[in-house]
Amino acid sequence: MSVPRLKRTGSKPNVGIVHLGPGAFFRAFNAVYTDDAIKQGDKDWGILAVSLRSPTAKDQLDPQDGAFTSVTLGAGQTEYRVINSISGVLVAPEDPEAVLSKMADPAVKIVSLTITEKGYCHEPATGELQLDHSDIAHDLANPEAPKSAIGFIVEALARRRAAAVAPFTVMPCDNIPSNGTLAKGMVLAFAKERESALAAWIEENCAFPSTMVDRITPATTPADVKSLEKAQGYHDPACVQHEPFRQWVIEDNFVNGERPQWEAGGAQFVADVDAHELMKLRCLNGTHSTLAYLGYLAGFETIAETVAEPAFAELCKRIWRDEIIPTVPKPEGEDLEAYCDALLERYQNPSIRHRTWQIAMDGSQKLPQRLLGTIADNIQAGREYTCLALAVAGWIRYVGGVDENGDRIEVKDPLADKLKAAIDGANTPAAKVQAVLSMKEVFDPSLSSNPDFVARVTEAYEGLLQNGALAVVKS
Ligand code: CS2
User: Fold this and answer.
1) 15-270 is a CATH 1.10.533.10 domain
2) Ligand 1 — pocket residues by CB below 6 A?
């Protein structure tokens, strides 16, 4: 017997937000908070979700009128909730004009982003816009049919300016420090290439709040869709599975102060997000990436399986205590030790199957803010960073593309080919490490020329080659 499809009941909220990047994280996070706000009476904050690449989200959500299921996986219990905040989905490459005209619509007040680190088209080590990035070059040549998020934002803002409409707020929700400042820098650099008066108008009138976002959300698998079918009796390929925890800290900086009451879902509005973001990036994402590379190499499929090995749990505790917490200024209202204790429990949640391979993706874009800044701070303060150096070595070992059994690793990274060529082109372990560390896209020269840093990463890399990740972490 075929299972019926999930279908929206009730009307769609009016669109007030265009969101770029309608993946699992957005659905488990922004869409849920916005649903909370709409339920409290914010009727004009429906979301138009825009995919910049694949039609998958549209294909999944359209037959359901935008409704989907958020599945909360607690350690012992599962909760299901249908989310109704998405009013429509567009696929940008199919019709860029439809996207631009919605973004230019005066009813749209916010453009939010979950486009991953690489979506900002910046150089990870320096934060500069990559003018030679193929999408950026394309969008400068074809401003009315853009491909990149930055190209869409600038063209839509140009149209609003021409029509004497106030700009929207640009709200990035990716794991990058000061993500509002970064997005602003990319938008202004791109706009300047087009017209300096446009850049000046954006600078004067637009707002780019920084945000800290947090909810562990593995990619949805066919097995997840099946188990939802079993539990709820309907088919919903757009469903998302996530942990109970969620935290959203937002800089309260919106054009004309217009925004939904995301407080309804527990969002915190603060004057300065940076300390919260630093805590989250270094404590959570820093250890996540460490566990992803070393855990994958040790043969573990998920984070929960990795930290079930006591040596990996101990590695996390040690790295937090000795190498991360000392570098993090305490954000208001947080207790760093308690935060990290809670993190380990979140990682241990056996219901969350977060693959080490998924987190290992795009390391070249993630390392600077997750690990390298922490290492640089420790070097400056004369502190330990042995475990962080091991994490960097784990990444270099991983992007070499061959695992400890000699099998191929499917490395997903914009710099994958370059990394592999650097590693394969060198003969000794030390030369391989040196070849990767000299990649300026990732490593600031002040770090990669530090002899102590080079020596520690090399030593750790040699240890991984000789003994394997599990033995190294256990030692
Ligand atoms: C993870 C994050 O995939 C990754 O790189 O570290 O997506 C992580 O799960 C989230 O930042 C948690 O909020």
Assistant:
1) no
2) 175, 214-216, 284-285, 288, 358-359
Distance 200 CA to ligand 1 centre (A): 35
Query: Cα–chain-centroid distance for residue 139?
Result: 23
CA distance 367 to 414: 13
Which of 359, 362, 365, 366 has most ligand 1 atoms within 8 Å of its beta carbon, as the pocket-test mutant?
Answer: 359
Element (H, E) at 187: helix 179-194
Residue identifier of the C-alpha nearest atom 6 of ligand 1 = 285
Q: Look-up: residue for tokens 């400042």? A: 181
Q: Give me ligand 1 centre to Cα 214, in Å.
A: 8
Instruction: Report how far residue 266's alpha carbon sits from residue 44's, in angstroms, rounded to the nearest whole number.
Output: 19
Q: How far is the CA of 426 from the centre of ligand 1 (A)?
A: 32
pLDDT tens for the 475 residues of the chain, in order: 589 999 999 899 999 999 999 999 999 999 999 999 999 998 899 999 999 999 999 999 999 999 999 999 997 899 999 999 999 999 999 999 999 999 999 999 999 999 999 999 999 889 999 999 999 999 999 999 999 999 999 999 999 999 999 999 999 999 999 999 999 999 999 999 999 999 999 999 999 999 999 999 999 999 999 999 999 999 999 999 999 999 999 999 999 999 999 999 999 999 889 999 999 999 999 999 999 999 999 999 999 999 999 999 999 999 999 999 999 999 999 999 999 999 999 999 999 999 999 999 999 999 999 999 999 999 999 999 999 999 999 999 999 999 999 999 999 999 999 999 999 999 999 999 999 999 999 999 999 999 999 999 999 999 999 999 999 999 9
Let me know: does 257 contact 273? Beta carbons within 8 Å: no
Are the folds of 15-270 and 274-474 the same? no
Neighbours of 301 (CB within 10 A): 14
Q: Domain map of the chain by residue range?
A: 15-270, 274-474
Minimal-distance CA residue to ligand 1 atom 8: 216
Report field, pTM of the whole predicted structure over 0.90: yes
Cα separation of 152 and 298, whole Å? 42
CATH entry 2.60.40.10 includes domain 274-474: no
